[in-house]
Structure formats: structure tokens, C-alpha cells
Amino acid sequence: MEELILTIVKPLVDHPDEVKINLEESDRSITYKLSVHPEDMGKVIGKQGRVAKAIRTVVYAASGSKQQKKVFLEIVE
């Protein structure tokens, strides 16, 4: 899943080397915390959050039935 997120996000940003994903897992959920360079934050979020929503849609669809846990994607500063 992390590779999928990196594949989607790295072409969008000006600083692809600073794209990082931290994984937090609990009994019921998996949370991927995406951090990017501060200058790239707007590119990843997009106007009115459209890009972020599209990334989340793809990630949620890809993880859909494979896991019994709920998957979340957070964009952190």
C-alpha cells in the first residue's frame, strides 16, 4: 500500500525525496500518515481538497476487501 501512495504522490510534488509515510496500526485500523515538504502541501491537497480526496479514494479502493481493518490516509504537516 505504501508503494501505491508513493507512486501517486511523488509525481505531484517538487520535492519527491521528502515524501514520507508513517504507518500506525491498531486492532481495527491502519493509518498511513503522509508527510511532504511544506511547499508541496498545496499540491497534494489540491483545490478544495480534490487531489487529497482522489488519493484517498484510490487507496481505500485498493485496500478494500484485502484486509479486515479500516484504512485511513492522513496528510500531516
UniProtKB/TrEMBL annotation:
Signal sequence range: none
Q: Which domain of life is it from?
A: Bacteria
Q: Keyword set for this entry?
A: Cell shape, Cell wall biogenesis/degradation, Chaperone, Cytoplasm, RNA-binding
Tell me the InterPro entries matching this sequence: KH_dom-like_a/b, KH_sf_prok-type, KhpA
Q: Where in the cell is it found?
A: Cytoplasm
Name of one Pfam family that matches: KH_KhpA-B
What CDD domains does UniProt report for this protein, alphabetically?
KH-II_YlqC-like
Q: What does this protein do?
A: A probable RNA chaperone. Forms a complex with KhpB which binds to cellular RNA and controls its expression. Plays a role in peptidoglycan (PG) homeostasis and cell length regulation.
**Similarity section:** Belongs to the KhpA RNA-binding protein family.
Q: How does it assemble?
A: Forms a complex with KhpB.
This one is known as RNA-binding protein KhpA
Instruction: Give the organism, scientific name.
Output: Rossellomorea pakistanensis
Supply the source organism's classification. Bacteria, Bacillati, Bacillota, Bacilli, Bacillales
What gene is this protein a product of? khpA
